[in-house]
Write a structure and sequence with these properties.
This protein has about 350 residues and is α+β, with helices and mostly antiparallel strands. The chain contains eleven helices and seven strands.
Length: about 350
């Protein structure tokens, strides 16, 4: 049963987490917008499009930074109660550290459920829309994204791409070559288009040439692409692992494994997403010993500083283990879980030191 004191602590943490989120997202908005200024004037990309792009990116940034925001929100919420001696009064009246932890746990679960909704339904769609709108504006109409693929053109050649695997490989490529009179001169379908030695090469190609009185078709294993693709246009159909929903991520991993392609970064992202709720709970529990273990505003300031440093250390460890799983080929699930295990150990050690 949740008592009045439990609800009071939960409310303090939720309000603090909300305030931290607003401040941090505001800073990220302005910093990211400044970074977009260099692209203004490219094609049809203007300040309005730049602001729209940054706004659409915010749900993804919020999801990525959520564990750190949880730590800061928990520290500030409990820190305010501690600075006003409210936690001292609670503990004096018999409200134990375990009961404080229970209130923190409930607040963390509420926030984790909310961010899971953002990460699985809002952030992926918003990030994809942001990338499509930005590159469409910068291309000046040179490329268009549809529900089933990407259309792009260069001069008199039009390409339709079914699947952008990565920046070096496209699959399901159909090309249409027109002559100076805008009449169809040649078509081809290639199973894949790969970047090899700084040039694009079509593989497993069925090529059809049209003349005034007949059609001529042939199959070729490789065919150099006659046009130079703009690499930036390819990002319109390329979705980073961190920007996929769980369902799409799992489907793409199966596709990569089935075709013998590198899937480790995507597998790591999948496991990191699965362990995200655990990570968030661990980070908010770290706030308890950092706040309850000190007396005095000066010492509290130092603990907050250490809390911020630990939050960024966690962020760095996540990035390190993600790269290490690719380089050293150890299980992605272990790489994704390792930072959380380290911080669980730290939380248990610090909580025991309070008793």
């Amino acid at each position: 049963m949740i008592s009045i004191l439990h609800r009071y602590i939960i409310r303090a943490i939720l309000l603090s987490a909300g305030l931290v989120t607003i401040v941090v997202m505001g800073l990220i908005f302005f910093i990211t917008l400044l970074g977009e200024l260099k692209d203004l004037g490219v094609g049809d990309y203007r300040i309005g499009q730049a602001m729209g792009y940054v706004l659409l990116r915010l749900p993804h940034e919020l999801y990525q930074l959520f564990p750190i925001l949880m730590l800061l929100g928990g520290m500030i919420g409990l820190g305010v109660l501690s600075s006003q001696r409210e936690l001292v009064v609670m503990r004096t009246s018999g409200f134990s550290i375990a009961q404080v932890s229970k209130a923190v746990f409930v607040a963390a679960v509420i926030l984790t459920l909310l961010i899971t909704l953002v990460g699985e339904w809002i952030a992926p769609a918003a990030s994809y829309l942001a990338a499509v709108k930005k590159e469409s504006a910068k291309s000046g109409g040179q490329a268009v994204v549809t529900g089933s693929g990407i259309w792009m053109h260069e001069g008199d050649t039009f390409l339709y791409v079914e699947q952008v695997v990565n920046r070096h490989r496209l699959e399901g490529v159909t090309g249409y070559q027109f002559n100076a009179e805008h009449r169809l001169q040649e078509t081809y379908y290639a199973k894949s288009l790969d970047l090899q030695d700084d040039r694009w090469v079509l593989h497993d190609v069925m090529q059809t040439t049209l003349s005034s009185n007949r059609l001529y078709s042939q199959h070729v294993e490789q065919l150099p692409l006659s046009i130079k693709l703009n690499p930036n246009l390819l990002t319109m159909g390329l979705i980073e692992p961190s920007e996929m929903s769980l369902g799409r991520l799992l489907k793409f991993i199966r596709y990569l494994v089935r075709n013998g392609l590198q899937a480790t970064p995507y597998q790591y992202e999948l496991w990191e997403r699965i362990f995200q709720p655990l990570t968030s709970l661990v980070m908010v529990f770290l706030a308890i010993p950092f706040v309850l273990g000190v007396r005095g505003s000066s010492a509290m300031g130092w603990r907050w500083l250490w809390g911020v440093l630990i939050g960024f250390l966690f962020y760095i460890l996540n990035a390190f283990f993600g790269q290490a799983s690719v380089i050293f080929q150890f299980p992605p699930w272990l790489a994704a879980l390792s930072p959380s295990l380290l911080f669980i150990g730290l939380s248990v050690f610090l909580l025991r030191s309070l008793r």
